[in-house]
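Field reference: sequence -> structure
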Amino acid sequence: VIHNGQIRYEHYWLTGGETVAWPSWSVAKSFVSALIGIAIRDGLIDSVNDPVTRYLPELRGSGYDGVSIKDVLQMSSGARWSEDYSDFGSDINRLGRILALGGSLDRFIAKIEPELPPGTYNRYNSADTQVLGRLLVAVSGQTLSDYMRTALWSPLGAESNGHWLLDNENMEMAFAGFHATARDYAKLGERYRLGGLWRGEQLIPAQWINDSITPDAPHL
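Structure field:
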């Protein structure tokens, strides 16, 4: 428990501990969102309104063809998707099985089909974040792990090494595969609480943080 930047209570049970790296699951999506904001600030991406296919031409003809980065961030891509974890054949379970059985996350997202007009319907879609992870790889010329280390993790003052789950082609599982300690997760939360500031430095753009938590269209 952290209050006003100070640890007020800390206790771990069973297999936990101060140095144990916990799976993020979808908290990974918040790290990816922050990295997109940093990439725009640093000029790696021109605008949140750019289509993702400007940077990822391999997604032309897929459900992401011409879809803006903003619509992908807001899970309003319009791509056909089912996030039903109780359905063995759902899209999310087929995506997750790549990590268990082998395969390529990049090839999976390239086969997703369009269904709805982008920017009209909000639907939780983990593949949207996987697209954003691939976007960061393309614009940075680095792995997602390396880009995050230099752009966010080290500047954040992380106390421990984080790590990502990888597919057979060494692409990170951007939608859920990050692992870190509880204290280091809390550091990202603190940065959002303080509008992106860290030791006097604007680590994440303040406007980006505000925009990321503010619905700005009826479908959101």
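Note: Residues 126-140 form the longest helix (15 residues).
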